[in-house]
């Protein structure tokens, strides 16, 4: 049986540069929220399954439409003000290439978060406000892990429209794709069944 090591987050506010330097030397997953480093809990299997299905579904939709977009799963960050978030899935579009060494996606079009008990409050409140401060973000999808349900926030000019979906298609335009909500969830298993 292994021994768990405790990782202490830095006390107080840290700059983005300080955070990056600190994070490189520490195992685990972290986000910087309003300048404070916050550890994120390990992912549950159900969460990882949904994240994988979202990646596959969005990648297939982008390819089917021949769009100049790429789908990235877990890891790259979105920088907003004094926060650095790690969404579950990001879709970015355009001809500009983000370096393989980059830690940041500066031009996300779609951001997806799968709710988990430890991040639910931040995902539905602060991240909603922050993600739409990024001019390129057009859609923020929040997926429930315990049932087939999504909250779809969509930029419409200077307004943010919100829809709650339990079935049907999720229309993501721009970039011009539609994906079945059920396609974001695994078939069978112990989680939501479609």
Key features of this structure:
single chain; 194 residues; alpha+beta; tt1808, chain A; six-stranded mixed β-sheet; two-stranded antiparallel ribbon; 4 helices; 12 strands; 21% helix; disordered N terminus
Number of spatially distinct domains: 1
Strand content: 25-35%
- Largest sheet at a glance? 6 strands, mixed
Question: In one word, what is the shape?
Answer: globular
Number of helices: 4
State the end-to-end distance: 37 Å
Sheet with the most strands: spatial strand order: 3-6-7-8-9-10
Q: List low-confidence stretches.
A: 1-6
| Structural class category | alpha+beta
Tell me the CATH topology.
Answer: tt1808, chain A
The CATH architecture classification is Alpha-Beta Complex
Overall mean pLDDT stands at 91
What's the CATH class, please?
Alpha Beta
Report Rg.
17 Å
Q: Please give the share of residues in helix.
A: 10-25%
CATH superfamily: tt1808, chain A
Order of helices and strands: HEEHEEEEEHHEEEEE
The total count of strands amounts to: 12
Please explain how this structure is put together:
Residues 1-6 have low confidence and may be disordered. The chain has helices at residues 16-24, 45-65, 120-124, 126-131, and strands spanning 30-33, 36-39, 69-73, 78-80, 83-85, 89-93, 108-114, 139-143, 150-156, 159-165, 169-172, 177-180. The protein has 194 residues and is an alpha+beta fold. A six-stranded mixed β-sheet has the order 3-6-7-8-9-10, with helices on one face. The protein has a two-stranded antiparallel ribbon with strand order 1-2. The longest helix is centred in the first third of the chain and has 21 residues, at 45-65. 21% of the residues lie in helices and 30% in strands. Strand 9 and strand 10 (159-165) form a beta hairpin. The protein starts with 15 loop residues before the first helix and ends in a 14-residue tail after the last strand. It has a single domain, classed as tt1808, chain A. It contains four helices and twelve strands; from the N terminus they run αββαβββββααβββββ. The relative contact order is 0.15.
């Amino acid at each position: 049986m292994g021994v768990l090591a405790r990782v202490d987050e830095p006390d107080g506010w840290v700059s983005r540069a300080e955070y990056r330097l600190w994070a490189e030397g520490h195992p685990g997953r972290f986000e910087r929220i309003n300048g404070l480093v916050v550890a994120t809990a390990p992912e549950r299997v159900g969460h990882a399954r949904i994240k994988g299905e979202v990646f596959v579904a969005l990648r297939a939709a982008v390819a089917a439409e021949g769009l100049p977009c790429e789908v990235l799963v877990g890891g790259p960050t979105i920088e907003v003000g004094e926060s650095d978030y790690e969404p579950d899935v990001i879709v970015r579009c355009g001809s500009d290439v983000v370096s393989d060494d980059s830690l940041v996606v500066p031009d996300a079009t779609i951001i997806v978060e799968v709710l988990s008990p430890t991040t639910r409050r931040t995902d539905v409140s602060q991240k909603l406000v922050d993600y739409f401060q990024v001019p390129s973000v057009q859609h923020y999808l929040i997926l429930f892990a315990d049932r087939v349900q999504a909250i779809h926030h969509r930029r419409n000019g200077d307004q943010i429209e919100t829809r709650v979906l339990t079935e049907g298609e999720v229309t993501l335009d721009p970039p011009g794709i539609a994906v079945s909500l059920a396609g974001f969830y695994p078939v069978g298993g112990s989680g939501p069944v479609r």
